[in-house]
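A quick aside before the break. I want you to see a complete sequence-to-structure record at least once, exactly as it would be stored in a machine-readable document. Don't worry about memorizing anything.
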Amino acid sequence: MKEFREYDAAAQRFYETLSLQSIPVVAWDIYSLKYDKVKGGLEELQGIKEIATTNNWTSSFNLPEEILDKEHVVVITDAQLRIVHATKNMKQMNGYDVAEVLGNKPKMFQGPDTCQETSNAIRSAIIEQKPFEATVLNYRKDKSTYKCWIKGLPIFNAEGLLVNFIAFEKEVA
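That is the input. The structure line, written in tokens, reads:
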């Protein structure tokens, strides 16, 4: 028993010499939120990499930057413009769950006040299989509108055939 008292006293003297500072609980909350975003982003990257591998993509762009750093919504369509993948953060932007958009065309986000000139320019770029960048008036699930910046890129396979389109999107003021 005496050994434990000596140990406790020695430990007490040691800890008194240290200048330990505690981390506020709030800091852990902030860290946890960032961790959850990064974890979700890495899961999204894995899903997109599977599509890229399956379709033998040759196109190169910085997916980690677009998803993890810029937190863009990513929408991937097949060559016929049917949505085959969308990131989960789409729901924050327009209210749609991923399952609700799969198999549909991105036109589903447009409505009566969407600028036809902008839509035609995007359509022309898609037909010509060229990259495009535009801001378009889109509609949320609840029918309210928002301005959506879109950077779209055609994706080709090793044989040079168009296999997908990928769009990086974000709501803008």
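Two observations worth writing down. The CA atoms of residues 10 and 16 lie 10 Å apart. The longest strand covers residues 145-156. We'll return to this after the break.
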